[in-house]
Design brief:
Layout lengths: L1 H12 L11 E6 L7 E6 L7 H17 L4 H8 L12 H8 L5 H32 L18 H13 L5 H11 L3 H26 L3
Antiparallel strand pairs: 1-2
Helix pairs in contact: 2-5, 3-4, 7-8
């Protein structure tokens, strides 16, 4: 009787564990020794997600991540900044294991919508950066110069080109771009001018040699 009473007292002193939620099962993604914080998600019917869909998304995610210039570590740390409910930063190894399909099925399913949200945000930021750069560089979405450079060469610019030609008749593409920018001319106009000037010199040398005749 005394032993039974002691066991009853011990059971009464421990808190009762709440029953699991009926809507899904819980899983944890990330955390541990990899350095990232754990991600605790409640999953429902998504656990039945087709493994082929997970594989296709993992490959798509990897290719887009590489094209965006983001490392796996970048993705892991950026997740904490998205402020998704219950989501913190994840380790690089977790992202690596997702892309290589070595996480458990439950964790793959839990991580898929989170990485999808990161991908949408990263592509939006990339588009904004591209548009900002185009505006700063004076180009629009179509790639056409907003400030059109001149295609005709006036006398002052011609004298400058002749001076450059005397120094270097075959300038590099980078040098041609510098000359064009300095003279406010299109790069192709400057390139064609140098090409025509070289042809002109060849014709002049040929004519001079013809007039002199054989020696």
């Amino acid at each position: 009787m005394a032993a039974a009473a002691a066991m009853a007292n011990q059971s009464a002193s421990q808190p009762a564990m709440p029953p699991p939620a009926s809507g899904g099962s819980a899983t944890t993604v990330g955390g541990g020794a990899g350095g990232g914080s754990g991600l605790h998600c409640v999953l429902g019917t998504e656990l039945d997600c087709d493994p082929r869909e997970l594989e296709a998304f993992a490959e798509h995610f990897k290719q887009r991540r590489i094209k965006l210039g983001a490392t796996q570590a970048d993705v892991g740390s950026a997740l904490g900044k998205l402020k998704l409910p219950g989501v913190g930063s994840l380790s690089q190894s977790t992202i690596c294991r997702f892309e290589s399909l070595t996480l458990s099925h439950n964790n793959m399913v839990a991580l898929k919508p989170i990485l999808h949200a990161w991908l949408i945000e990263a592509e939006r930021a990339a588009r904004e950066t591209k548009m900002r750069d185009e505006l700063l560089n004076g180009t629009g979405g179509s790639g056409i110069d907003r400030k059109r450079k001149r295609t005709s060469i006036a006398a002052p610019e011609k004298r400058s080109l002749e001076a450059y030609f005397a120094i270097q008749p075959r300038p590099s593409g980078e040098k041609i771009a510098q000359i064009a920018d300095k003279l406010d001319l299109k790069k192709n106009v400057v390139r064609v001018w140098f090409c025509n000037q070289r042809q002109k010199q060849k014709r002049m040398k040929f004519s001079a040699a013809t007039l002199r005749g054989p020696q």
